[in-house]
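Protein Record: Sequence and Backbone Structure Tokens
======================================================
Tokens: labelled as protein backbone structure tokens, with as many entries as the chain has residues.
Task: work out the structure tokens from the sequence, keeping to the layout shown below.
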Amino acid sequence: MEIKRYEGTGRMSRAVVHNNTVYLCGQTHAEGDVKEQTEEVLKKVEDLLNKYGSDKNHILSANIYLRDMKDFADMNSVWDAWIEDGNEPARACVEARMARESLLVEITIVAAVK
């Protein structure tokens, strides 16, 4: 099967489509508190999924990285308002060192093509 890579930087692709599955690289936003960053990241996720043939209701799995687990409840309040009942993906959330000090959350997504 063909592998399609989109928006490559020489280091990574923002999206890869293979076997009717969309893989998104980690999405971040470096401004605001964890709620604001989560909102912006989820907007990016939704835009990329729509651009490459999927949407948030077709998300299969999500990996969420938080700089500090104290932000878990705040991040979840945004996530829970965004994801629709009945379309909850498999999900993991872990505390992680981030690439930049200003990053509080990073989300990677795997979704089915519509």
User: Anything to note?
Assistant: The chain is about 25% helix and 35% strand. The first strand starts at residue 3 and ends at 8. The chain has a mean pLDDT of 98. Strands lie at 3-8, 13-18, 21-27, 59-66, 90-95, 105-112.
